[in-house]
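Researcher: Please translate sequence to structure tokens.
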Amino acid sequence: MIYTRLCALIVLCRITLGSRDFTALLSSAPESHTDLVLKKTEGRLPSWLKGSLYRVGPGLFEHGGRSVNGICDGLAKVHGWYFEEGKVQYSSEMVPSHVYNRTMDEKVLAPSVVTGDITPDLTLAEEVRIMMSSFDKKDNANVAIWDLEGGRSVVVTAESPMMQQLHPKTLKYEGQLLSGAISKMGWSKKPMFSASHFAKHPSGSSFNYILTMSVLPWEMKEVSYEFFEYIPGKEGRVETRKVGSVSQPLTDMRLLHMFGATENFIVVPLWNFQFIPQSMFHVLHDMTHLCQSIRFTYENPFYIHVLSLGSKKKYKFELPPARGVHVMNTFERTNSKGEVEVVLDAPTTSNVHEIDLNKACMFDMMKIPNMKDTDYLYKNVPWNTTLRRYVLNTNTLEYIIEDFPRIWDPVDAMVEFPFVNLAYLGKEYCYCYFQQWQMSTNNMDLLKYDLCRKTAKSWHEDNKHVMEPVFVANPKPTSEDDGVIVAPVLSMTLRTGLRR
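Model: Translation complete:
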């Protein structure tokens, strides 16, 4: 199967004739579709392209007089494309989570933690209820897709140990999936968050963490990122085992959206986004409105932790402050002195001091009104992306930072949502594929970057917006980049209808 990672935008869209922006991406589309046969408009599909591509994102932004304006806050909708013998079929379904069902039952958008604005705003009673509720009540998994069970189900995730399962062909709901790691924690630990993105090990198993805090007063000064391996077992059961942990002071708790895995290590980048309420007098409001709880700390280092899967030894590196979210790839190598180096590649902000990163919340760019305003995006979003390599020497605990040349055109673009050939995850590689989002024009293009030759190639067509790319390798490849890119493209020139 072809599984994809983050999809923060709606894939199935309404298109309005003459629209010059991607407004169609930012409106509700809760309708379900089953086995639609897609018409091919140009080109041809390779005969070897078989499998399924899944995406998840927001499908409903408003209901019963209440609405949200952050694309990370809409109720989850999953999409599936099925490729076989040169044909493509498409299906989509809203995910019937507890949040969705409550919305339908009460005929108003159910209250939940938001990254953007919710109108009318949450009441104090709703904030209390949200913070006191269990994981099964916080299950709007609208961020990422993962394959935990060897293709037996589609697993939909968010920043929570509570996931959702759907049938891989029909997309029909199969129930909640609470991380089995929860049961292995003692009563004294309170689980809080997980990464939306699992890290894939070269062996095929997956890793994720659960952020925990002790309920014992004398242990509340720090939080722990506890990492678990998820191994597909018999009859669809997923086995879990703890592989290590990283501690961080409670006053310097970091947002960890994605990390990496190599053959022998887990690589944990704790970028400089702190998660802490702005005021203890408004802690409920700040914890349920995430933009009030996340700030970029210029005062503290950027930490990268490296955990050995074999010896369980931990390595900690302190680096200059850095802004990042996603990871391109991680791998390990031996240098000329016989020392083991762990390498992490990531799209980062070139200069964190060029723009005040606390002037706007990191989620403000994901608010629908702001996404339509190119002037706002250009002035407030740190689009000055650099592809950066961190080389971490586990013998000397020294590091080297290497920047790849910014040779894409135009350079004033946010280069994000990286994807590599899955056969090269955790290994040395050359090619990475990105969405290239031009802040000044709102054009969304496709970028292929060759890190070995330090060359770049972009794909652009007027009135076309490319979503996050997925590389699918030829089953009999002759090179690392022998394959195709699969990416939904929004066309602004079609008549009113549906476009995949």
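Researcher: Any highlights?
Model: Confidence is low (pLDDT under 50) at residues 1-20, 495-500.
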